[in-house]
Structure formats: C-alpha cells, structure tokens
C-alpha cells in the first residue's frame, strides 16, 4: 500500500492555514468585553498578544492559550510533535512555564485510520514530557479535515511577563530560530520531499530561549508563527508605539528554504502576510523574494525578542516612532 500522506487531506497546512491577520482583526473588532469585577486581567485582546494573562492570588499570573492546525507534514508522529511544540510556544513567548495541556482533535474517521491519530497524540505527548507538563484529556470531533493542537495553561511572574506592547526604542532585535519552514512545508505538501532541518527546527522547544530572555531582563517578545517575521514585528511595533529596522542580511534561514522559494513553493499565507504589512513597510532595494521569506508563514517558529539573547543572531533594532517616515513602522535594509 502507498503510505498515507496526511498533508493531502488538508486545504492548508500548519500555521499557514490561519485566517489572514487583517481579516481576523476586522472580525474581532469591537468584541473587547469589559472584564467582570474582581478579575485582574494583565494581558487580554487589546494587542493580539501570544497568550492571555490573569493575576491570581499568591502573586502569580495564569497564562492561557490554544493553537491547532491541519497537517504540516505527512508523518503523524512528527505532526503531533510540531503541533504541541507550537502550542506551548505561546506560554514561553510570554516568559511563562507550562503547567498542563488538553488535546484538541478533529479527525475524518471515514477517511483516515485512527491508528494514525494515535501516532499524532503520541507525538504531542512526547513533546509535553520533554517540556515537563502533563496532558490531561481533551476534546475530539469527527470532521472533514484532520486537525490537532493543544490548549495550554501556564504560570508566570506578573512583573516579568514578556509582552508585545512593551518594546522600547533603541534596542537590538534577536531571532532565536531560522526562518523558512513555511516554504519548505509547502514544498513537502506539493512533492513529498521531507526537510529534516525544518522538522528539527519546528519540534525544538522555545523554553531555553524564553528562560535566557527572562534572565537577561527582556520585557518584550513574541513568537514568529503564521504571520511571519514581518507580520509579528509589525504587530509588536504598532502595540508598543515604536518602529523597527530589519537587517535582511542578518536573518538566518533553514537550509533549502531559498531553493524551495525559487522552485515556486510559496504558501498563500506568506503572500497574504506581505500584502498586509506592505502599507507599513519601507523596503527600497529589497527584492520581492526576500520580502516573501521575511513574511513567510512559520509553524513553531522562534522567539522575536527586543533585546539580546545569548547565542541568537541580532536581526535589527527598534527605533523611535516617526523616525522612518510617515506611516512606516518596519524598514528592511
């Protein structure tokens, strides 16, 4: 029998199947409900941060987040690992530690054997074991497309949260994982060609990078996922009231990413990311291919940190609002 290719059962793949950022913002506009009396919301809907944060008794903040998507690779075990690492990344991006998770599953039972689902869940569980948190049940439905992810609960020190509205001008910008997994995953879906480098990057936890950032006193960070580096940086600069420069030559890429792009493997989400950011972008002399890579929709990407993280490349700097020209929040050089 021919091996089952999970990516062929999904219209999109990984974080590239997100609803476009601009469209999503229009959908949730006006839905910012007032917190009930007695609640102590630290991070909510206002700036589209990575996780919600609420202060509780005992001086801690509880973090809550969820992430799920259609298959990004054909191997079910690897898909489970990638989805779990991606889901817990939001907790790390806020400077927290995961406490527990529950699984979220949609499965086309008449199309795909449940043995594959077991492998997906095994992959997610192995990542949870590596990260040191239990997976305590979840919810599953029969659906047309396979979907897997987790809802993750974590804790953090409220005084040391990393937020996307806390960036200040005059600081370096670090990136803790290379870009390019979006175009490589798109090639994998189209041709079946597997990138071990992309998978290794996607299953790597952002735990160590998060702890290094907290130890360095960093207060502004986000993870780079479906909206690409440019999209997530734009959201951070807008929320923080600053601007940023990106040094395109300093940005690292997974091996094979440029070749995949040259072969035409561009996720629709990456193009939509660039179109969304373009009105706020200055990139004279930078080619369209380079911009596509900078906007490439990542799955389980690294942390984008305002400050220096030991071992991570510096890919730009934050600058004062208005210093890059009218309406420009991100400049690529």
TrEMBL record:
Catalytic class of the enzyme: transferase
Q: Which residues are Mg(2+)-binding?
A: 50, 90, 223
- Entry's cofactor comment: Binds 1 Mg(2+) ion per monomer.
Location of site Important for catalytic activity? 18
Chaperone: present as a keyword of the record? Answer: no
Description of how the protein assembles with itself and partners:
Homodimer.
Q: What is this protein called?
A: Selenide, water dikinase
